[in-house]
Design goal:
Chain lengths: 479, 471
């Protein structure tokens, strides 16, 4: 029998359903992988009830009970998504006492479909970072080269899928935190339309930008999982009532019309990875696809807008971590003000503190209009510019990152270097559109590169079709 | 001292009477074992998100309509960020830029109009419990997330009495329209009071001092009197008033400094990204408008103009919704408002005035039955009082009891007139005496009539007839 851990979500479910493999075997095989690849530090906890859950699935199979679509499929979950009775630590020492008393909506939905939760994955503390080097559990490593970072903040979720430590995983994406690590580990990661997936039970970083999304080994799995976790949630007012398409049957058209943003292209000219993307465009053109150029004049403002809005919201969202309730209280605190100041000073890491300070600053009286309000206005302008572009094309193509995964410790000194990792990814968060990163070639050190397929809001179905189309073309298959 | 005038602005908070809290489905109920009316949302657990309670928005609109406010088409919720252990999320969901209601106001009895700046919806905080100092301070989040409206006045009031009347009128409107219960002792209505003083004729406002969270109308009055006197004394002695927040100690009847302006907090307000802005269509505003019953001011007008009650009587009946409702139920049963009002004022309210629980223990049906029997001379004055007392004690049927106890007079007024004529004819000397000193002889005549009728004659009627006949 081939190695089951190489298989994706749908294939695994099918094998279990057809009794070709037991769920327990699958779960044990993944746990074995996790143990063998402990050096990756991608998984911070393997749940001790995973094998029992697998045995229950096998009972159901044996008894001929009706099996759900994802019955027995083991998945890993980012450390900032709540699972009843499990720790949710946000990779912060401040949160190590917190046990989730309820299921996030996405978890409840996956549970309903029969998914087995295998464990929690490493991340940058409170999802703030692009390398998963800033975790209280220690640095996480790239699935394909342990001297390199896995990206972040969902580095553990992406590295784990890249190294076959689970069928798939969930990550969260505020400024690129699913797509950039997916790209670095050669896997598939989606940032859905804002509102597509309920945020209830996701520990908030920046509420107006955060989205949960699946990280998978192939396009079909990604589409399927997104369908399962999507939909209006009465617990989340920002969840959209837009109907959830069935992405099961991905049927592509003969050709598509793609948009290329001038400002992105300008950035690309300086990059060593440019030939990879040129080749893709060439292939698409040869296959009859049309390309239109458009301009997002404010593209250069993506990062400033992103850092103003995300830190403003974060500073407020992280206020509840105060040493009063579930967060670790400083032992040196003698009174109420000290509970706050000392617990927060000891509990949060440097990067988190930096962003809390930045966010407090942009919201403070006298600076609100100059920063927060201005960023809000520019966000609307940018969204209009991108929405206009979608009138002329099916999808916008752009790289996920400027280069392949960088070496661990190589971007330690200047936080701005790290912030530039989000250059191509924040656009989708700021404008709320969906964006899917798929592996599209190799760069330096034979490391993978990602291509982002960005569609208009709630056009995930088209986005997956185009992904399938491009992938077939890159593999030299007929489309 | 008299050349100073006081300028007062109030921010009055009232807890809305909704079934559930403002942003979650936990029960909105006073008290309960600590932390039992709680869920991940109202204790601000990570990952939990607020979902707006539509009824709370509707009641805020209703409050706005009662106070003559304009209702915004779109309302936005903001986060007010500050740290305090009773504030689970470290921010309060409130409204700053686009509150649900704008403008409006309340007219005082003097005719003076006190403007409102706005009414907005926000959530209440939990409570710190200091009961057991050995354990330390504890937090009870039962109240956290309870919907609260804040009614912000302009600085239009110029005396403690005006502030009291303004707050009382707000309170009455909220209670009459079933928006809030405003139970002071449960913290259901609280006020922040802003006070400044200035020389009469001066148009520029003086430096204001704020006193927060005062939880009774009486305390609002006392705090204003104290604070304006303090400021005037300060100015008279050549000092200046410092802009600050002072804490009112109602037991000691004085206030002391809490926080100066330099130390005032920066709440870093910004729109709550978890709550989409709320669209308020005109049709739903009109629908809510139809839910509003007659408010105290309108009821007062009706009592005076239609029912011929005095301003004072109308005011007493309206001072509690229970009294006014009781009065109106009685009028529905027996359309003699003036007589009913007299009975309520003289009998009902005199009894419950001294009672702990102000409960009217006689049904409108019984009270009106007694009044009606009396009006029709079917029972005597004395019997009506006996009957009233019996019905107050236990819920019996007034009419049936009157009958059972033989109170119902079988004598028609014609019969009584006959008896009176007899008595007068039998006592010509007494008739002569009556013309000189009627009050002395009257009891004798009444006594004679009672004797002849075995006590069944209505003494009031007898009295009336004697006066008529001997005039």
């Amino acid at each position: 029998m081939t190695d089951v851990t190489k298989l994706g979500v749908l294939e695994t479910a099918k094998l279990i359903r057809e009794k070709k493999v037991s769920c327990e075997e699958v779960v044990r095989a993944y746990i074995k992988n996790i143990e063998e690849k402990i050096v990756l530090n991608a998984v911070v906890e393997v749940f001790d009830d995973a094998i029992d859950e697998a045995k229950k699935v096998d009972e159901r199979v044996k008894n001929g009970e009706k099996l759900r679509a994802l019955e027995g499929v083991p998945m890993l979950i980012k450390d900032n998504i709540l699972i009843t009775g499990k720790h949710a630590g946000c990779a912060s020492r401040f949160m190590q006492n917190f046990v989730a008393p309820y299921d996030a909506t996405v978890i409840a939905k996956l549970r309903n479909e029969g998914v087995i939760f295998l464990g929690r994955t490493n991340m940058d503390e409170f999802a703030m970072g692009s390398s998963t080097e800033k975790s209280c559990y220690g640095i996480c490593r790239n699935a394909l080269d342990t001297s390199r970072v896995p990206g972040g903040s969902s580095g553990g979720s992406a590295s784990a899928v890249g190294a076959n430590l689970a069928c798939a995983s969930l990550g969260s994406d505020t400024g690129g935190s699913i797509r950039q690590p997916a790209s670095y580990n050669g896997v598939y990661g989606v940032k859905p339309t804002y509102g597509r997936v309920s945020r209830y039970g996701l520990i908030a970083f920046a509420s107006s930008l955060d989205q949960i999304g699946p990280i998978t080994k192939n396009i079909e799995d990604n589409a399927y999982l997104l369908k399962v976790i999507s939909g209006k949630d009465e617990h989340d007012m920002t969840s959209a009532s837009a109907s959830v398409d069935d992405y099961n049957e991905i049927k592509s058209q003969k050709s598509y019309k793609f948009g290329i943003c001038d400002e992105v292209e300008k950035q690309l000219t300086n990059l060593v990875t440019k030939p990879v993307y040129d080749k893709i465009i060439e292939k698409l053109k040869k296959n009859g696809c049309e390309f239109v150029h458009f301009s997002i004049k404010d593209f250069d403002l993506c990062l400033p807008i992103y850092y103003v809005l995300s830190t403003a919201e974060a500073t407020s969202n992280l206020g509840r971590f105060d040493g009063v309730k579930y967060t670790v209280r400083s032992e040196r605190a003698d009174n109420v003000p000290e509970i706050y100041t000392k617990s927060r000073s000891e509990g949060f890491g440097e990067e988190v503190k930096r962003r809390i300070m930045l966010g407090s600053y942009v919201l403070s009286s006298g600076y609100y209009d100059a920063y927060y309000n201005k960023a809000k206005k520019l966000q609307r302008r940018l969204t209009n510019q991108l929405t206009d572009a979608f009138k002329e094309c099916d999808a916008v193509l752009l790289p996920t990152t400027a280069n392949v995964a960088f070496k661990i410790g190589s971007k330690g000194d200047n936080p701005i270097d790290m912030y530039l990792e989000d250059l191509f990814t924040t656009l989708a968060n700021i404008t709320g559109v969906p964006s899917f990163s798929i592996p599209c070639g190799k760069g330096e050190g034979d490391m993978p590169l990602g291509l982002q397929i960005m569609c208009n809001k709630f056009e995930e179905r088209k986005m997956y079709e185009i992904a399938k189309y491009i992938e077939k073309l890159l593999k030299g298959e007929n489309v | 001292m008299s050349e100073y005038e006081t300028v007062i602005g109030l921010e009055v908070h009232a807890e809305l009477k909704t079934k559930s809290k403002c942003f979650c489905s936990c029960v909105n109920e006073f008290g309960g074992e600590p932390n039992t009316h709680c869920c991940p949302v109202c204790v601000g657990l990570p990952g939990a998100l607020p979902v707006i309670n539509k009824r709370a928005v509707e009641l805020t609109i209703k409050a706005g309509l009662c106070m003559g406010c304009d209702i915004n088409d779109i309302a936005v919720f903001e986060r007010k960020n500050y740290f305090y252990p009773d504030l689970a999320k470290a921010y309060q969901i409130s409204q700053l830029v686009r509150p649900i209601c704008l403008h409006g106001g309340v007219t005082l009895d003097s005719g003076k109009f006190i403007r409102l700046n706005r009414i907005h919806l926000e959530e209440d905080a939990g409570k710190l419990v200091h009961k057991n100092l050995a354990v330390g301070t504890l937090v009870d989040y039962n109240r956290g997330g309870v919907p609260l409206i804040e009614m912000v006045s302009e600085a239009d009031m110029s005396s403690a009495a005006e502030a009291v009347e303004f707050m009382t009128k707000l309170r009455h409107n909220l209670i009459y329209a079933n928006i809030a219960e405003c139970k002071m002792q449960e913290g259901g209505m609280r006020a922040d009071v802003n006070v400044s003083v200035r020389k009469k004729g001066e148009t520029k406002l003086g430096t204001k001092v704020e006193m927060k969270n005062i939880n009774s109308i009486k305390a609002v009055e006392r705090s204003i009197l104290y604070e304006s006197a303090r400021q005037i004394e300060l100015l008279e002695n050549g000092g200046t008033v410092k802009q600050e927040t002072r804490r009112w100690d109602d037991l000691k009847g004085e206030n002391y400094p809490m926080r100066s302006k330099e130390n005032s907090q920066d709440y870093r307000y910004f729109p709550d990204p978890d709550i989409l802005s709320i669209k308020i269509p005109r049709e739903s505003v009109e629908k809510i408008r139809k839910e509003i019953p007659l408010l105290p001011a309108e009821r007062k007008k009706k009592y005076i103009e239609e029912y011929n009650l005095s301003n004072y009587d109308a005011g007493v009946l309206l001072s509690e919704k229970a009294y006014a409702d009781y009065f109106e139920q009685c009028v529905q049963l027996y359309n003699k408002p003036k007589g009913i009002a007299n009975w309520i004022m003289s009998s009902v309210l005199t009894i419950i005035k001294d009672e702990e629980e102000k409960v009217i223990r006689i049904s409108p049906k019984n009270l009106t039955a007694i009044i009606e029997m009396l009006d029709k001379k079917q029972i005597s004055q004395q019997d009506s009082r006996t009957l009233f007392a019996k019905c107050w004690e236990e819920d019996i049927d007034a009419k049936a009891t009157a009958e059972k106890m033989g109170m119902l007079s079988s004598l028609s007024s014609g019969d009584i007139e006959k008896v009176v004529d007899e008595v007068l004819a039998e006592n010509p000397n007494a008739c002569e005496d009556f013309k000189k000193t009627p009050e002395r002889v009257l009891p004798f005549f009444i006594g004679q009539c009672m004797k002849k009728t075995k006590g069944k004659a209505d003494s009031e009627l007898v009295k009336k007839l004697i006066y008529e006949k001997l005039k």
